[in-house]
Amino acid sequence: MTLFKTERLFIREFTPEDSEALKSVLADLKIMQYSIVGVHSEQQIGQYIEKCQASYQSSGISQWGIFSKVNDEFVGICGLNCHQIEGQDMLHINYRLAGKFHGKGMATEATDGLLKYCEKQLRLKTISALIDPKNIASLNVVKRLNFHKQLSTTLLGFAVDVYQRKLLS
Hints:
Layout: E1 2-5, E2 9-12, H1 19-26, H2 42-58, E3 63-68, E4 74-85, E5 88-97, H3 106-120, E6 126-131, H4 136-144, E7 148-155, E8 158-166
């Protein structure tokens, strides 16, 4: 099921058929270097898809695949997670792209589409992003999309900066 489309991309639910494509993100050490869960094995990728599918059914909030409109090629992942930060549940966006798509504006495009989805479909008033302070590429994405730094903290032992953006006024 397609969640939303942007100019160059469509974002849809994952299926078991996506496991091979997901390796280009979840099994790549360089791409996962800022992840609190680290690199995934083939078995963990299968579990990741199962977890996403269960979340589609239970809450509608999960991770989705980013695909090219031109040729249906897998581009990466975007989605929503909830973590407890400083005693509060915080819903936050996330994104990871396969290496060959870095530097082409696709993370910004997919994230902007996700923000519109959060505002129009989920009726959220604010959304957060948790970024490793060393992850300059992700910092640039959230800054381009008008997120503002709220605080620096830790999540599961990792340093993160919390950025937020107002959606509905």
